[in-house]
Amino acid sequence: MPINPVLVVHGGAWDIPDDMVEAHLKGVRNAATSGWRVLGRGGSALDAVEEAVVVLEDDETFDAGRGSFLNRDGKVQLDAFIMDGATLRGGGVGCVERLRNPVRAARKILSDSPHVYFVAEGAERFAEAHGITLCRNEDLVTPKEIERLKAYQAQYAGDGNGKDLFAPSGSREMLSHDTVGAVALDSQGNIAASTSTGGTLNKAPGRLGDSSLIGCGCYADNLSAAASTTGWGEPIMKLVLAKWAADRVQSGSLPEWIAQEAMNYLKQRLDGNGGIILLDAKGRFGIAHNTPRMAWAIQTSGKQEAGIQRDVK
Question: Residue 248 carries which DSSP code?
């Protein structure tokens, strides 16, 4: 019986301002189109999510790749993960500063390394040794983000003891969580997932979020589901939320129900804000968020749908 491929992408869950809605919609549509070029010609789910995430990393609208949030020292530090549901192989990079597309390096780790994870300089050296050109960190920094960091640091003064500067918890959903991700089902019945981020604005240098951690910001298993999350990383990490959601799909629940349940769990247990996309090997999917808005797009054969707010089946 032929399998109809499915691709779902997200571009972050937060209180996206009205004047940024169109840019977010355009970005997720472009990502879905790029990923579908792979699936439409019979390519793998793994290739599809990689190509979709590359488009989002290249789009300065999102907190991934060039134009990402700056850390406390004014640098871009990027994290990414990609996972193959057929083999459970995964590849991740963390705290990289000289990679335009960290998902490309993550994919090289998945395919060419016995390891799952490389960080910082070691990840960059691995990437360069496998044909990925490094860039300067300055090439990833945009003037808009320099101004955003200055304004943020001026508003939320630290205590002088080197602690991270964060907005009060009640306003976290107002801060951008433009982490990006994709999940896909291919014509062979395999699923895959990927997530990429620049992390939290004004984060401490070396801080690693949930996005590139297996089972937290990203997970894929043909026997359960492919998941990519976005939002406030620390609560998502504590709940290992992507794996939590996938396990419940494996137990027989529909992805659309579990996606919403995951967001309720995140909020009720740790007062966390975020969103999730979830897809099983039958092509059933869920999209949910507990923030005012979330950017998403879905591509199936002959049809693309994108949105910025409502949950969908």
Answer: H
